[in-house]
Amino acid sequence: MAIFEYGDVSIEVDEDGFMLEPDQWNEEVAAALATTEAVEELTEEHWKVMNYLRDYYLEFGVAPMIRKLCKETGFPLKKIYELFPSGPAKGACKLAGLAKPTGCV
Amino acid sequence: MATNETPLLDELEKGPWPSFVTEIKRAAAGNEMAKDVLLQLEKSYRDKVGYWKHGGIVGVMGYGGGVIGRYSALPEEFPNVSHFHTLRVNQPSAWFYTADALRSICDIWEEHGSGLTNMHGSTGDIILLGTRTEQLEPVFEKLTAHGFDLGGSGSDVRTPSCCNGMARCEFACYDTMAACYDFTQEYQDELHRPAFPYKWKFKFSGCANDCVAAIARSDLSIIGTWRDDIKIDTAEIKAYADGGMDIESDVCGNCPAHCIDWDGKQLAIDNSLCLHCMHCINVMPKALAPGDDKGAVILIGAKAPIIEGALLSSVFMPFIKMEAPYREIKDVVEEIWDVWCEEGKARERIGEFIQRVGLGDFLEAIGVEPIPEMVAVPRENPYIFYEEFFEEDDEEGEDE
Question: Rounded to two decimals, what is the model's pTM?
């Protein structure tokens, strides 16, 4: 498996760049992963999304449905894509240290 | 490729039929990706194991759909297909292309991908098979420069598709291509940024012949129909009879509503019973034609047999005139999406959702009045519950 390195951060990731061991996640890791998803700086709004995703994931073991994410954070989907240009599943979940979401093609 | 590298796949080249193996071999002559696809598939056939990993999340910036991630489970053995992502590209309405447009797609794909295409996928998109993650943005950039856009994938509005309608078909009861284009433009956000419980497909067929299989494959099937009488040209009917057609057997005998009579000279249709199935018109296209008051019937809830069983869509709006901007249909669709997104389970299609909550509750939630045409199997179930005759103490009375 690939190793992702940035500054002091060194973590194992899969082909899509998702963490293989989400336990190793911390804020420094999030900031490092942000560089791979066209997120220049993690603002308070980014953290609002990531904290919600993380809390939900730790409680239920899966990522929330996107509509729920929008409702709970108060951000319309367009805003989420502005914050995370690669989208909530690829960008936001990756930075929040969630396991890779599964989806249907 | 050496002739002895793929003995099992070579079996699929025998016989008079077209062979995907032959086609991929041709591509492999100039493309290492196409070559490794064949070698990995040969190994899969030999070992009886699929060597594609499940899923992957890749895409282009700003879009959540349109790219399906695919990785080889044996990247060291088949390095050229370690990444083999699929792109879905929104096809033009009814698949009309110029030769130049087709060439531009093929040129882009030969430069940035395997060169292999699937024209077209079952949803209708142009499918570009096999590229690497770092090629996605350059491909997307070039496709958009040539006027193409990615299609849908995942839990979003899938690329709408339509039959060729009035462009080539005299049976089309509305302009399917115009409607398909209009809905595609209207719902760009829902198409590119998945936010639904599961996929949602629109398909537009100009008549009940349903050339895009809307009734079997789309969550919202918009199928052309008419509400006045079938048009009859008596001279042409005589010509069919004189030409040897057995009208009694081939037309009357196959009418599902048994509403056509033929006395050897005159054809009579009881239009009040007609099911608008198109059969008689198909058999005698010069003599019979759809009426003049044309529009569409809207049906809801079809799906292919993935996860749960297959469903055909059911009548939802029996007749509507198809005129841009189609606001009446869009208002109902958006109401349905609100309810489905709020109450639907993950990976639950709208047809399954309606089955789970019941048609009555579904209609109440979206604010649509039930009508007799919505009954899937009329006159079959005698236990009909009339809410207006129900009083609160009725149940208590039964208990006593």
Answer: 0.92
